[in-house]
């Protein structure tokens, strides 16, 4: 090939490689959005179909309630017929879930829309009523949301506590939780951990509005569940291992910490008259508008540990806090603690700025978590747990999963 021809080929190749018109990016976004919308539409149609099937089963059961065992026989017969026509997915267990879905979400669709879908031949094949039902401007708990798939609803139906179920429904939509993330939050009793220090009005707000942050006590959970680290429970675990694992799994850690946390730094050094100190993790909370300093302890918490964190918090308030920042907060994540030591070391004033939470390196059973929560209730200050509300807090524990 001649030198001139080679140059032409190279030139042509260079132009082809670089010629990506600006419109390409916009077109790609359109295609992606269309595919996402199509997937959401399919998910919504499946949810509606399952709800309508559940409604038919319940209404037919009610019509035949005088016959003993009618419901079980009905599910078996429907399962045989549906599997023959449509394949797997319509076993007795699934049909029972559809039935339970309707009973737990009786107002999923407005009556006029569900009746219209029922009358139409092809039923849920009509997209207009479904789209009208999920526009979201006036969405309320218990109504259809295009942001929740059937897998989400299956998990929600298993939550027996109505307040907890409403909370998880709101949070899943607000935070765009995947079904796996929702399952983890339910399994780790997120609602119960947040509800620990709430009075009856606070519990109602959780159920109606989800997790709202108005004060430091609203941010921190106890215990903090970190099974995603994959670390074994071991007395040989040291702070550096725990810290590195948290950094390596920062996205999961932020999810467990909750909304508003932004990572700033790790092992931040402060020097006081030649003495060096290192803060394990520094975050900024975008809702409370303040720094949050986290100290890690793989042993039982001591009053000296609390004093050290007080030093860090005071330093940040004096040296790093700027106009517009609220007072710095501190959190010690420890393997174990004596709640009485924490209470009397901090006193009522410092207890509003410095917190101590146990961490769990595996997902405890519901019974174990309930025991943790009940133990914490005993050490709440009167301002956090008005008289009579400890009993109410205990009643919220347990997701009531089937």
Number of domains: 3
Coarse structural class: alpha/beta
Ranges where pLDDT stays below 50 over 5 or more residues in a row are: 1-18, 121-136, 381-402
Q: Please, what is the average pLDDT?
A: 79
Strand content: 5-15%
List SSEs in N-to-C order: HHHHHHHHHHHEHHEEEHEHEHH
Distance between the termini: 75 Å
**Biggest sheet descriptor:** 6 strands, mixed
Give a description of the structure.
With about 400 residues, this protein is of the alpha/beta class. The protein has 3 domains: about 25-135, no CATH class; about 160-210 and about 365-400, no CATH class; about 225-365, Trna Endonuclease, Chain: A, domain 1 (3-Layer(aba) Sandwich). It has 17 helices and 6 strands. It has helices at about 5-20, 25-65, 70-85, 90-105, 110-120, 125-135, 150-155, 160-175, 180-185, 190-195, 200-210, 240-250, 250-255, 305-320, 340-350, 365-375, 390-395, and strands at about 225, 260-270, 275-285, 290-300, 330-335, 355-360. It has a 6-stranded mixed beta sheet, with helices on both faces. Helix 12 crosses helix 13. The longest helix has about 40 residues, at about 25-65. It starts with a helix and ends in a 7-residue tail after the last helix.
């Amino acid at each position: 090939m001649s030198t001139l021809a080679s140059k032409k080929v190279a030139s042509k190749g260079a132009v082809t490689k670089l010629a990506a018109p600006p419109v390409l990016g916009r077109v790609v976004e359109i295609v992606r959005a269309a595919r996402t919308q199509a997937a959401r539409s399919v998910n919504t149609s499946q949810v509606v179909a399952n709800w309508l099937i559940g409604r038919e089963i319940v209404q037919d059961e009610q019509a035949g309630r005088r016959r003993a065992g009618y419901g079980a026989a009905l599910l078996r017969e429907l399962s045989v017929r549906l599997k023959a026509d449509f394949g797997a997915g319509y076993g007795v267990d699934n049909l029972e879930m559809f039935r339970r879905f309707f009973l737990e979400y009786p107002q999923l669709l407005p009556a006029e829309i569900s009746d219209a879908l029922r009358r139409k031949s092809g039923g849920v094949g009509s997209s207009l009523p479904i789209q009208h039902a999920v526009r979201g401007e006036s969405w309320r708990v218990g109504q259809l949301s295009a942001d929740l798939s059937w897998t989400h609803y299956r998990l929600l139906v298993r939550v027996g506590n109505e307040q907890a179920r409403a909370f998880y429904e709101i949070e899943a939509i607000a935070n765009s939780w995947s079904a796996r993330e929702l399952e983890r939050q339910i399994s780790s009793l997120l609602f119960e951990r947040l509800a620990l220090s709430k009075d009856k009005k606070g519990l109602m707000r959780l159920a109606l509005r989800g997790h709202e942050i108005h004060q430091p006590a609203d941010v921190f959970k106890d215990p903090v569940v970190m099974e995603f680290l994959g670390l074994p429970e071991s007395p040989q675990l040291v702070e550096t291992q725990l810290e590195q694992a948290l950094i390596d799994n920062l996205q999961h850690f932020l999810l467990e910490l909750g909304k508003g946390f932004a990572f700033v730094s790790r092992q931040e050094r402060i020097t006081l008259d030649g003495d060096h100190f290192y803060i394990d993790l520094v975050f900024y909370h975008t809702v409370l508008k303040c720094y949050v300093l986290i100290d890690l302890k793989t042993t039982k918490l001591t009053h000296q540990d609390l004093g050290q964190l007080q030093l860090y918090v005071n330093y940040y308030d004096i040296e790093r806090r700027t106009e517009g920042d609220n007072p710095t907060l501190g959190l010690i994540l420890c393997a174990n603690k004596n709640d009485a030591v924490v209470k009397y070391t901090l006193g009522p004033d410092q207890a509003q700025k410095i917190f101590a939470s146990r961490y769990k390196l595996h997902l405890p059973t519901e019974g174990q978590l309930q025991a943790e929560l009940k133990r914490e209730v005993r050490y709440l200050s009167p301002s956090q747990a008005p008289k009579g509300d400890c009993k109410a807090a205990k009643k919220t524990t347990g997701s009531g999963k089937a």
